[in-house]
Fold Methionine--tRNA ligase.
Amino acid sequence: MSHVLAAVAWPYANGPRHIGHVSGFGVPSDVFSRYMRMAGHDVLMVSGTDEHGTPIQVQADKEGVSPRELADRYNRVIVEDLHGLGLSYDLFTRTTTGNHYAVVQQLFETLHRNGYIVPKVTMGAISPSTGRTLPDRYIEGTCPICGYEHARGDQCDNCGNQLDPIDLVNPRSKINGETPQFVETEHFFLDLPAFAQALGKWLDGREGWRPNVLRFSKNLLDDLQPRAITRDLEWGVPIPLDGWRDRSDKRIYVWFDAVIGYLSASIEWARRSGDPEAWRRWWSADGEGKNARGYYFMGKDNIVFHSVIWPALLLGYDGEGDRGGEPGNLGLLNLPTEVVSSEFLTMEGKKFSSSRQVVIYVRDFLARYDADALRYFIAVAGPESQDTDFTWAEFLRRNNDELVAGWGNLVNRSISMAAKNFGAIPPIDPAGLTEADEALLAAARTGFTTVGQLIERHRQKQAIGEAMRVVAEANKYLSEQAPWKLKAESDKPRMGTILHVALQVVSDANTLLTPFLPHSAQRVHELLGGTGVHAPMPSIEQVEDLDGGPGYPVLTGDYTVGAKWESVPVEAGRALATPKPVFRKLDPSIVDEELARLGD
Ligand SMILES: [Zn+2]
């Protein structure tokens, strides 16, 4: 057993999340965490909503509410969506907690003490018409690096480079089109070049990363510049230095605080668990977390924050950049083991866009379809290693031809036949097993090794392909053995054997599919006469802020229960539940209905 941190990207709380978001960070991290727990590892899966920054401030201004009220609203929406998908977070919290503020400030102070955070007079953008600071994301212009015409003030989505608004060629306000004015302002900068060597050494030692992610990350090291980590903004974590602490117009920049969320959420989880030091088992590089592994899940637009900036913050905290230094009070902290980045999901050939209605929100999806239908699509056809298009026609085909006609049919016909002819799981005939029986049982057993290894290496598409291959072989076996023809009394022992073998493989395939399809896995477990929890589910709990702030909902759960990653022999004589379909067949008319809902 080992300690495994599943650090999942923090969804930004300025609106509901769409299925493109959850296909990048949500479902893959849950499949991984569920499998690792079933295989006996001690997993800590943490995340929360990312709630600071200018876009939330701007959106709140527009709606005439406070940023906190806006964040409260979308925090709740996102918590409910992730709950609906069955994502098994040990803690899904938020960045507006007292605990998070304290941890962020502790990292800031230590990085500052170690010399990695330096003050600098810089040029900040303001709106000439209002005199207010113009948020980076609301400044658009041509990227000075790749020439992309719609680069944002903080980042170019085309080449992935981080930018400052003043770098943009032909900058303009996205709010009213005016040209921003640049004025002098003092800010703190993270001295990223002081980490170039340490980051290079760390990246050179990485193994097993998706090649495009590693290549992209190494390229980022070629041009490391000091990065502003404070902003002219009232909404965010206060700067914990004398002379700055009480200023209401300067805050720590949102990306600096959000990446620290992985650590602060782990600490919050430990504080809530009754053992406030428990987080160290996943984090302490020189203590009990020495052998722990940390996997970070995100979409490719966030690679830079996880393969450069977060490791740089950790190196600075540990005192391991060019300027040396002493670790802070939390002790030496672990860097990521792997940055697991997905590519983008598009929608009917177009980029997701809330403003153009090219979008399907998680909530709307779950109102009309089952969570496992979406989880299946993401696993089998999601953007794991290349950009991928979601189309309703393909969703319908995958659901009806594979989930319903493949897996659902195997479950349904084997359980129905056994229930009808035996009322229970039939025994194996003393005459024994045939070669075909043995071959199928062996294929299912082998799946535990192949599927497990593929999930552990983040090859989930191949992994579910292997699991579905077991399903296909079992369907083929049933067609060839045709137990329905063995109605004569003398043939019944052989019919029982075939169905026993089929039910064993249903049970095994169900375990292999549990990380991907936890909701239906629980139902199949019950159809097979099983009781208790097979696939544990998260729950939403309203909690008090540990440091006196307002309460909030979190996602959490007890995942120590449930199936293990192993073949469990089905027991002859165990009563079978009344069979009912596990998956819903969808009417082809949904394709036109859904397309009519899309804009453009
Ligand atoms: Zn660019």
Notes: The pocket of zinc ion is lined by residues 143, 145-146, 148, 151, 156, 158-159, 161 (CB under 6 Å). The longest strand covers residues 117-126.
